[in-house]
Amino acid sequence: xxxxxxxxxxxxxxxxxxxxxxxxxxxxxxxxxxxxxxxxxxxxxxxxxxxxxxxxxxxxxxxxxxxxxxxxxxxxxxxxxxxxxxxxxxxxxxxxxxxxxxxxxxxxxxxxxxxxxxxxxxxxxxxxxxxxxxxxxxxxxxxxxxxxxxxxxxxxxxxxxxxxxxxxxxxxxxxxxxxxxxx
Length: 183
Ligand SMILES: [Fe+2]
Hints:
- This protein is mainly alpha-helical.
- Helices cover about 60% and strands about 0% of the residues.
């Protein structure tokens, strides 16, 4: 699967621009993380890009979410490792996170929302001037973007990253595609 094929499929299945941007942001962070950890950048990036591809197809049935997504990813040519990471990122299935890829996707998923929210409360609503320290502060403020699961992000320790490291890496990755994210 090429990145273009993956992106075309995302565009064909996702109308909500914010959802598409969340998937692009997840891709960017997963690529940066793979580079940092010496893992397969393409495999990790495309897993991030595709992970919520079924969100509009499941018609609100969260018990189907990520099962359908993993099937769609397989049809596109995703490896079993990629499909497994997509499948288990939805906690409802109770499938344990096994690989580094599983754990990475799981902790990056909510991080995009935290960083986006931290950018949007700035006067310019942009990522460019946002600093990692300020995102870390927002992480600690439980009432800020309260829907963002902090515990899930903290699981980065299981892939050998401290929270501050993950936030910094995630922020820089999202800043790198700020125009695509509309931020
Ligand atoms: Fe997601």
